[in-house]
Design brief:
Shape of chain B: globular
CATH class of the largest domain in chain B: Alpha Beta
Distance between the termini of chain B: 54 Å
CATH architecture of the largest domain in chain B: 3-Layer(aba) Sandwich
Structural class of chain A: alpha/beta
CATH superfamily of chain A: Thiamin diphosphate (ThDP)-binding fold, Pyr/PP domains
Largest sheet of chain A: 6 strands, parallel
Radius of gyration of chain A: 17 Å
Oligomer: heterodimer
Number of helices of chain A: 9
Number of strands of chain B: 15
Strand content of chain A: 5-15%
CATH topology of the largest domain in chain B: Rossmann fold
Number of strands of chain A: 6
Largest sheet of chain B: 8 strands, mixed
Order of helices and strands of chain A: HEHEHEHHEHEHEHH
Shape of chain A: globular
Number of domains of chain A: 1
Helix content of chain A: 25-40%
Largest interface: A-B, 35 and 41 residues
CATH class of chain A: Alpha Beta
Number of helices of chain B: 15
CATH topology of chain A: Rossmann fold
Distance between the termini of chain A: 53 Å
Structural class of chain B: alpha/beta
CATH architecture of chain A: 3-Layer(aba) Sandwich
């Protein structure tokens, strides 16, 4: 006999504070997709959720801490990593995940990012990189690629961008990865791998901001971005980061 | 409860204020500190870094003061009693996280060994230059507690008090030392652990289902849980409701901020510690704190030798400010002498300014050196003092 298909139950619902829905993210935003993949990875890994703490900074991705049913900390702008450092040191039995955005982690928190990697402290960092400051209205970030138009560079950005996995690996991380929000299934794997590794792990997820980045740069909507990611991405497992 | 004997270095010591403060933190149960080097405060964490591994804790030197002041709060939510140590420029950088600790009600201690400013200022010379930023440095409406020791012995005793107040009220407590007190070496007696009272974390006894992180149950200070205990709570610097969930409405803001202020304001009389002497029939009252209160004592003794009615009010608690006491004195004394190592005098700005300032003597000092007793003067005092000086040489 076939099992009854019940599509009213969301398999990741036990990980979410459903009383806080609807969330603040825009249609087409990739952050919710990353949370979905993260939750599925946690289910797969059978990790003890009571020993898992999640720390966010400020920004659109910073709001993840408020939507997951875990011990979760929404800290100050850029300071998720040092807060997580104190949490881990005071209770080394905790699995501590930092979940934040590119502006939060690599600009205002860039100092903490490289030093945590240098220390190789046992934190798992998930960086949702939408190439822009989204919550404040689409300003240039250290990750904004050259020539992209932003609200603070209306004639195009001219500063070179950080390549975050390269930066963090050079600073001493034991594990770095980059995926996109098109890779919903694949994304669970690096999360699992990071949990199995002791030390500083960094997973960058390239994610669309249709409202402020894609729209302003005439890149279409959320679906167009998925097609773009699919077309442009090259999967290289174990890729050399010094290339 | 009594102090954990592991952290208590019982005995008679000859140590400076910085080291004594470190021993106070250990006796109070601090097992985690995050710091960044800055003169003249670093000796506190240097000693902690050497001592804490022997009692089961750790110290981390962070990459800057912003990191140190938030890492310590991560430590608190991980279950430790924690503190950081800094001086003026570092304290300026920590303001963001004093606000975060006030908003999230994270019990913790900021030790500030004050030096001259603004900016890099006077790295190894004293000042009382951070008294206002200790209270008002972060944005928004909040209350903190600040204590001012005036000897190495008090650096020990009052550091314990600072941790106890932090736990009782779930506020960041500012421990406002100055360079002279920090680097002054004197006898410090550390009692046996069973004579030291420490306030434990106000940990919830509620079940996971019942627990709400910011429900107050009438006494204004909510109960805490730590990460990893199964409560799956959420903490945010955003305006939040009893569940700890962001709720940015005027009603929630009003309710939260009034509670954050009232939990301290309603306990002001209990928190405010001061030393007083000869206030009953005083013509002049010297109001002082920290190192200047030591100098003030000599000046007051000299005034008494001249037959002047000079009273002493030495503030131990700087914030909340003991307005009531000052206003009461303002109604009956002829003058206040307020020696501080800053030009604008924190005490005056904080205490019913109009009532006090019209009776204020022009005794002003600057940071960089401790004031001398002969700088204390009101016109009548100065005259009597000169007379006395002539008579006694």
């Amino acid at each position: 006999m076939l099992n009854v298909i019940d599509d009213t139950v969301n398999p990741v619902e036990p990980f979410l504070r459903t009383d806080r829905m609807p969330h603040i993210w825009c249609p087409g935003c990739g952050i919710g997709t990353t949370v979905n993949s993260f939750a599925r990875a946690l289910i797969d890994s059978k990790i003890d959720l009571e020993s898992l703490a999640l720390v966010s900074g400020i920004g659109c991705t910073g709001r993840v801490a408020g939507y997951v049913k875990l011990d979760s900390f929404h800290t100050t702008h850029g300071r998720a990593i040092p807060f997580a450092t104190g949490l881990k040191l005071a209770n080394p039995k905790l699995n501590v995940v930092v979940y934040s955005g590119d502006g939060d982690l690599s600009a205002i928190g860039g100092d903490h990012l490289i030093h945590a990697a240098r220390r190789n402290i046992d934190l798992k960092v998930i960086c949702v990189n939408n190439l822009i400051y989204a919550m404040t209205g689409g300003q240039t970030a250290p990750t904004t690629p050259g020539h992209a138009t932003t609200s603070t560079n209306p004639y195009g950005t001219f500063e070179p961008a950080f390549n975050l996995p390269h930066l963090v690996e050079a600073a001493g991380a034991v594990y770095v990865a980059r995926w996109t929000t098109f890779h919903v299934r694949q994304l669970a794997r690096p999360v699992n791998e990071a949990f199995q590794k002791k030390g500083f792990s960094f997973i960058e997820v390239i994610s669309p901001c249709p409202t402020l980045y894609q729209h302003r740069n005439k890149m279409g909507d959320g679906l167009d971005t998925m097609k773009y990611y699919k077309e442009k991405s090259k999967v290289k497992n174990g890729a050399p980061t010094d290339a | 409860m009594k102090a954990d004997p592991d952290g208590v270095l019982t005995g008679t010591h000859f140590i400076d204020g910085d080291h004594a403060s470190c021993e106070g933190a250990l006796a109070a149960g601090a097992r985690f500190a995050a710091g960044y080097p800055i003169t003249p405060s670093t000796e506190v964490v240097e000693r902690f870094a050497a001592r804490v591994p022997t009692v089961g804790g750790c110290f981390i030197q962070m990459e800057d003061e912003l990191a140190a002041s938030i890492a310590l709060q991560g430590g608190v939510w991980g279950g430790a009693k924690a503190f950081t140590v800094t001086s003026g420029p570092g304290f300026s950088l920590m303001m963001e996280h004093i606000g975060y600790a006030a908003m999230t009600e994270t019990p913790c201690v900021f030790v500030d060994v004050q030096r001259g400013g603004p900016s890099t200022g006077l790295p190894t010379l004293p000042a009382q230059a951070d008294m206002m930023q200790a209270r008002w440095g972060s944005h928004g409406d909040y209350e903190i507690i600040a204590l001012c020791p005036n000897s190495p012995q008090e650096c020990f005793d009052l550091t314990i008090k600072a941790f106890n107040l932090a736990e009782e009220f779930r506020v960041p407590v500012m421990f406002m030392m100055d360079e002279v007190v920090g680097h002054m070496t004197e006898k410090v007696v550390i009692p046996p652990a069973d004579q030291i009272e420490v306030v434990p974390r106000k940990h919830t006894r509620k079940s996971v289902e019942e627990y709400l992180p910011y429900a107050t149950n009438g006494d204004m200070v909510p109960e805490m849980a730590h990460a990893g205990e199964g409560y799956k709570f959420h903490i945010t610097g955003l305006t939040h409701d009893e569940r700890g969930h962001p709720n940015m409405t005027p009603q929630t803001q009003d309710k939260l901020l009034k509670r954050l202020q009232n939990k301290i304001r309603t306990a002001t009389d209990r928190i405010c510690l001061f030393e007083q002497d000869g206030l009953e029939n005083a013509d002049v009252v010297v109001v002082s704190y920290g190192i200047t209160s030591r100098v003030a004592q000599r000046a007051i003794d000299m005034a008494h030798e001249c037959g002047l009615k000079v009273g002493k009010l030495r503030l131990i608690t700087a914030w909340p400010f003991p307005d009531k006491k000052i206003v009461e004195l303002a109604a009956r004394v002829k003058a206040f002498v307020v020696p501080e190592l800053n030009l604008d005098r924190w005490c005056v700005k904080s205490s019913a300014p109009r009532r006090v300032s019209r009776k204020l003597s022009p005794c002003r000092t600057q940071a960089a050196e401790s004031i001398t007793p002969r700088r204390f003067s009101t016109p009548s005092w100065r005259q009597a003092d000169a007379e006395c000086y002539r008579r006694h040489g």
